[in-house]
TrEMBL record:
This is Isochorismate synthase. InterPro entries: ADC_synthase (IPR005801), Chorismate_C (IPR015890). It holds the Pfam family Chorismate_bind. Residues 67-308 form the Chorismate-utilising enzyme C-terminal domain. It comes from Lishizhenia tianjinensis. The lineage of its organism: Bacteria, Pseudomonadati, Bacteroidota, Flavobacteriia, Flavobacteriales.
Length: 317
């Protein structure tokens, strides 16, 4: 029997046993908790059932590149920007660590909740999905009745005193402009933005712009299609960045950078599945990535993935 456990910021932890059923975005109904892969080709909905809790671990672990393989792969990735007309794209890798003997998923979940009070923290397991856990700071879209909220989130630095680089400022502007343009095309009303400003997520700082708008609640599934994938997890232009990612990344992203959260008419809380990991029998596979532009330095980008991995590891091990 699979499980779903999550904590929305400011709320109590939810826990239920059940199974994950393969569905489509179009079939989502009031009250569904949804989990999608990055490419949204797999959309799972959680169905509560009675039974004994059991963790399911996928037997095959994805390939994790070495540091030198990352350098070579990112160099090849970046070399295609000009010919493809790409302004920015996300390049990710898997950071793999062995489980410690005393590692317990329930304790890890509780530590993430304590360390990251402003993140959406979750733990899921099922035969179809395997076991995943994360603490994502990024809201895809949330709503209370017809009042909607989303954000653009990009850039990473360790301390508040450090200045943002031009690359990071441009990266965050790409994300903001993309979201605003998509929402204008979706003909939402009362569209407003506030930012960028620094936000501390418990281990690192990001640049964030808050975006609010109004639209009928029945448009939520259309908004998911419109907003995801964002430049923060894909790139600009979207289609070209998707093709480049598929060509150069050595792993399937799985649920990394997909959509996760609950759907409802009165209230909706959907998040981008960042800062996450897949749990295996004896190891943890942390998914970490960075926004790449023509000015990116491969060594600095690798260090950024190390910093992001530490966001989880300092809590887990």
């Amino acid at each position: 029997m699979g499980l779903l456990q999550y904590r929305i910021p400011g709320e109590e932890t939810f826990f239920a046993k059940g199974e994950w059923e393969l569905k489509t975005l179009a079939s989502l109904v009031e009250g569904d908790f949804v989990l999608t892969t990055f490419n949204k080709e797999e959309v799972y909905v959680f169905n509560e059932e009675d039974g004994e809790k059991n963790y399911s671990f996928h037997p095959e672990e994805p390939y994790a590149v070495s540091e030198q393989e990352y350098y070579a792969g990112l160099s090849a990735f970046k070399s295609e920007f000009e010919v493809r007309g790409i302004a920015k794209a996300i390049y990710s890798r898997i950071h793999k660590v062995e489980k410690s003997e005393d590692f317990k998923l329930e304790d890890a979940f509780n530590r993430l909740c304590e360390k990251y009070p402003n993140a959406f923290v979750y733990l899921i397991s099922g035969e179809n999905t395997g076991t995943w856990m994360g603490a994502t700071p990024e809201t895809l879209v949330s709503s209370k009745k017809n009042a909607f909220y989303t954000m653009s989130l990009a850039g990473t630095k360790k301390t508040k005193e450090l200045s943002w680089t031009q690359k990071e400022i441009e990266e965050q502007a790409f994300v903001t402009d993309f979201i605003l343009e998509k929402l204008r095309k979706a003909e939402v009303s009362n569209l407003q933005s506030d930012g960028p400003k620094d936000i501390f997520t418990g281990a690192v700082y990001h640049l964030k712009t808050d975006i609010t708008f109004s639209t009928p609640t029945e448009n939520i599934k259309q908004l998911v299609e419109v907003l995801h994938p964002t430049p923060a997890v894909c790139g600009v232009p979207t289609d070209k960045a998707l093709d480049l990612i598929a060509k150069h990344e050595e792993h399937s992203r799985g649920f990394y950078a997909g959509v996760i959260g609950r759907v409802g008419q009165e209230r909706c809380d959907l998040f981008v599945n960042l800062r996450c990991m897949q749990v295996f029998e004896n190891s943890l596979g942390l998914y970490v990535g960075g926004g790449i532009t023509k000015d990116s330095v491969v060594e600095a980008e690798y260090q950024e993935t190390i910093n992001k991995a530490q966001t989880l590891l300092r809590v887990l091990v």
